[in-house]
Request: fold
Amino acid sequence: MSLDTKLSQFRELFNPLPGNRYLEATTTPDAITELFGEMMHQVGGELHLALYGTPNEEELAGINAKVERGLGFASPFRAAPRDHDTVLLKDIFAAHQNKPMILKLSYTTLANTANIIIMEKKGMIDTLEVMQMLEEHEFRSPNTIEIVEGYDLIVAKKMHMWGNGL
Reply:
């Protein structure tokens, strides 16, 4: 089964526009990283990849992204304010030692009305607790979506002039 077939429903969550920037913070680049890279390439956008742990260079081969390497689970990723149209936290949220910091940084780097997506392997997070954390950090309409096999996926939106107003 091709990448497009396996992730077609996941792909439908996004409508990248020319010049968009997506940020993926993860432990391991995979098919989703490739999909994001392809989507950004097609619209002249950029993928920023924040890698936690120590990925091997073979995993990065063919990935079209600006890469920040060697982050630890107590560290934030680097991201400028209002610089990203989507933030994906994949396989890092459950292990991160400072979840509020990661949510605050994600909120700050997102453009208005942009989405945050938290993906963790099934059973790694309490989805209701994470949705409550998102609300507490001024993300709106958090929802779980069952579209990637083996993963819990939560999507929420940063709304203009709500909460922090950034």
The longest strand covers residues 110-121.
